[in-house]
Here is the input.
Amino acid sequence: MTTYTAYAPGRINLIGEHTDYNLGFAMPIALEERTTVTFEPDGSDRITLASDEEGVGSAFDVTAQPGDVDGWASYAAGVVWALAQAGHPVVGGAMSVHSDVPIGAGLSSSAALECAVLLSMNAATGTELDNLDVARLAQRGENDFVGAPTGLMDQLASLGGEVDRALLIDFETSSVEPVAFELDAHDLVLLVVNSNAAHQHSTGEYRARRESCTRAARELGVDTLRDVQGEDVLERIGDSVDRARVRHVLSENQRVLECAKAMASGDFRRVGTLMDQSHASMRDDFEITTPHIDLIAESLGVHGALGARMTGGGFGGCVIALVPAPDVDRITTAVTSDIAERGFPDPTIFTARAGRGAALVNDRT
Ligand code: ADP
Ligand code: MG
Here is the structure.
C-alpha cells in the first residue's frame, strides 16, 4: 500500500487584521507547529478519517455536497469537494490526522488541516497545483462547505512559510513577498499569549465587519477599500460606525507596509510601536477586542514588551508580543499574575518562530 504524508503549519498574523477581504495587506508567519495528514488511497469513493485530536472518527463520500457532512470532517470533505468542483481528480481511502497546532485559538488549525489534506490528496492523484491554486481551493472549502467566511491569508501563510521570514501578502494580486524576520539576531522573542477565551459571537461579528466594509466601499463608489486612500475619504462615509471600521482598514494597511520596511531594516522598536498602534485600532475603531484581550496586551507593554497586539479575527484568541529574550520568563510570570488578579482564565504562553510552509513528507510504497 502506498501512503502519502503531507504537513501544513498553523500561522500567526504579525500585523494586518481584517485587511484580506478588503484586498489590502497583511504580514503573517507560518509556525513550526503543524498538522500532518497521512493518506492511504484505496480506489474507493469513500474517505474514512481519524484524528488524534478528535476522539470520534468520521467518514464521507468523495461526492459529498455542502450540508452533507458536519463537525471536523467537514474541513476535509470541503477541500475534497472544492477539488472535484474544479475538475481535479479525487479518490477514497483512509486519512489520519495529527496536529500540534492549538485548535480554535486563532492560529489557524483549520487552514493547516485543509492544506495538509489537499497536499496528500494531490500527491495520491498526481495533481500538481501551485500554492495560490491550493490556497483558493482550501478557502473555497472553508467558505462554501464548512460555512466559515474567511479570507485567503491563513492558507497562503500555511503554504508559503519560510524559516525566519514573514510573508508580506498583497491581497489585490495575491502576491507573497518574504521579509526578513530575524529575531535571534536582535535577541528578541515572539511571545504568544493564548487567552484561552472562547470566541463568542465571532462569526456574527466577523460578518458584520465585512458588511460595514462592503457598505462603505459602495458609498465611496469603489469595488473594494483597496481603491481608496487617505483620511479625506472618511468624511464621505455617513455612518459613524462604518467610518471607524474604514479608518481601521486604511490605517492598518499603511502599518503593514511600514512594518515590512522596519523589519527589513531591523528596526524592531518601530515594529513594536506599529503593533501597539494596530492593537489600539482594533480596539477603538474596529471594535474586535475584549476587555480580557486588552488587559493582556496592556500588561505585556507595561512589563517590557516592545509592542503587543491581538492576532486573528478577534473576540478572544491570542495576543502576540515582541519581547527581549532575557525578559521572557519575567514577563510571562508578570502577565500571568495580572490576568489572574483580574479574574480571567489562565493563559497558555509560549514562544513562536517563523517556520517553513506546507510540504509533502514522502510517498512511501
Ligand atoms: P482555528 O483555525 O483558529 O484553530 P477554527 O474554528 O477556524 O479555529 O478551526 C478549528 C476547527 O478545525 C476545529 O474545531 C476542528 O473542527 C477542525 N480541526 C482543526 N485541526 C484539527 C485536527 N487536528 N483534527 C480534527 N479537527 C481539526
Ligand atoms: Mg480557522
Summary: The first strand starts at residue 3 and ends at 15.
